[in-house]
Amino acid sequence: GNKTLQAIQRVGQAVNLAVGRFVTVGEAIANENHELKEEMSVACIEARRAGETIAQLTDVASLDHPESDSHITIFTDKTGVVKAARLLLSSVTKVLVLADKIVIKQIITSRNKVLATMEQLEKVSSFQEFVQIFSQFGNEMVEFAHLTGDRQNDLKDEKKKARMAASRAVLEKCTMMLLTASKTCLRHPDCESARINKDGVFHRMRLALEQVIEIVTDSRPNGENEMAPISIYSGIKEFKNKVEGLRENLYFLSKENLSTMLEVILEHTEDFTDSAYTSHEHREHILELSKQAKMELEQLVSVWMQAQNQKTKDLMEDLEVAILKTCQCMNELKREVHGAATSLAADLLKYHTDHMVLKALKITGVEGNLEAVAEYTCKLSEQKEQLVEMCRLLRHVSGTEPLEITCIHAEDTFQVTGPQIISAAETLALHPSSKIAKENLEVFCEAWESQLSDMSLLLREINDVFEGRRGEKRVYLSLPRPGKHNANLKALKPVKLDTEEQAKIAKLGLELHLLTSDVDSETEKWEDQENEIVQHGQGMSSMAYSMYLFTRGGKKPYFLLWFILLHAFSSFQIFATEGTKLASALHALSEQVHHDEKPLLLLEAEKLISMCKQLQIAAKASAQGKSATFTKVREELYICLKVTPTLFQNKVIY
């Protein structure tokens, strides 16, 4: 009837409008990418034409026939509608494929930029040159992070998604490591352990960049196949499926095939029985169940072969019993290895939660006690072996491919970070008064502690999968808690910054951090570390470094505006107060310097006071709405950027 025709017309118009919007995006992409512009334009024209054809064929008003004839025309001209629909599907698919190619190309181009800048960073010999190139590197890494983050969200394959997340996590952590490791190398150019430490970071970043490209392009270097070792869980799952399949079909696989599958599973259980960290009780149970599994399979094969020759009711009942007993045995084996892996993990995580070895390395490093550092590096190596073994065993019982990949990533992280902590600690022990060597060791220790913390969450997820609690996806955000000075900000709601705003804040933070490094290296030159000027300078440097840390945004996918708010405004005010105190100290110093140097020193002090006042006014001013608040935070970071260089630009005070 008339309602049906109107409904068809609405659908046709809606399709045409949707295609129009889709094509507009496609055309915009085409204009930005000259190589594929022609192909994309043709596909867009085809899609637009198909959308318009569908709208015309379903437009009742355009028909000059009576209602009944209209009805007949639309429903009998199916050929036209089908042709237009096929053309639409074909052209839309082409647009999507071309858009995908463009995204991949953008990621590869971005990766190439990052690699080229990394090569420059590796070769620099002056701190000034390093600061300049690292600033560019920071911008390129922000761009790469956004492109790969969007790609990760678009991936449908959970396994690829997990691999992408692991690689991006490596790149995020390594960016900070690259900064401190390179600075340490520049500060101590003849130190072998500092060079080893830096080389390790660059190598790991290159591997992670390569893995991202493998995932994005769906390829492996030299045509390798991705052959991750089979876990016990996945082996048991497949084996049980085959065994239970015998109920439907007695002839779909051979007994040799089934025996081989069990042999592979039992070979993997040797990872548990050979491990020094598996308890005697777990080892005995696993060996008993392995022996029982072989016997159950022998019995199953015997009944199965008989049933193939003679399919009697009794034999089929015996086969059902054999299938049930075999599967039950495999379930018990699965439960046993799960218990062995998770109890070891729980014990190790509890034992290492105090980070005693890391604390001892930091203390003995600052003391320059090479002998004690050597002793604690041996203990850290033992701890690393324990944690690597824990990750290997957990992978066998993780239950899902993404969790398996997370276990492999954790194993790699401990394997790599352990030696990096050792080389950083050795460097500090050789240069105990070096602030940058101390900061470098802190960064690697933080990465170790962070991975241990992640293991507790991973263990919980593995247990959830095992116990069938796998519905809800947890979001782990280490959100800051408002302090007592922030009562007036409690009503603020989280607001996500857009990509451009994130990039601006991240860039400002990075520049601020590079400047604080300069301040630290200058204040280290003072013989009198208790001097008031040094104390205030170091205080401001420390606060500026804290500001840098929150602009990084941690593990969160976005820099949350309220996070910046809660910490920033009070930090800016304290920073300004500290700057004013420094200016007063500079005024006092001006009375003691040569007459011709005094005006220069006073000029720097006045500049400092002026900028600190600007900062205090900006920090006190209210900001309503996301846009205003973002602008305010950005402006204050800019002022901090102006303040910080005045601490060291005038060499008179040094």
Automatic annotation (TrEMBL):
Q: State any GO BP term from the record.
A: Rho protein signal transduction
List the subcellular locations: Cytoplasm
> What is an example of a GO molecular function annotated in this UniProt entry?
actin filament binding
Work out whether the entry's keyword set contains Cytoplasm: yes
Q: Identify the SUPFAM superfamilies for this entry.
A: alpha-catenin/vinculin-like
Tell me the keywords, alphabetical order: Cytoplasm
**What's one GO-annotated cellular component?**
cytoplasm
Similarity-based family: Belongs to the vinculin/alpha-catenin family.
Name by which UniProt lists this protein: Alpha-catulin
What is the species of this protein?
A: Cyanistes caeruleus
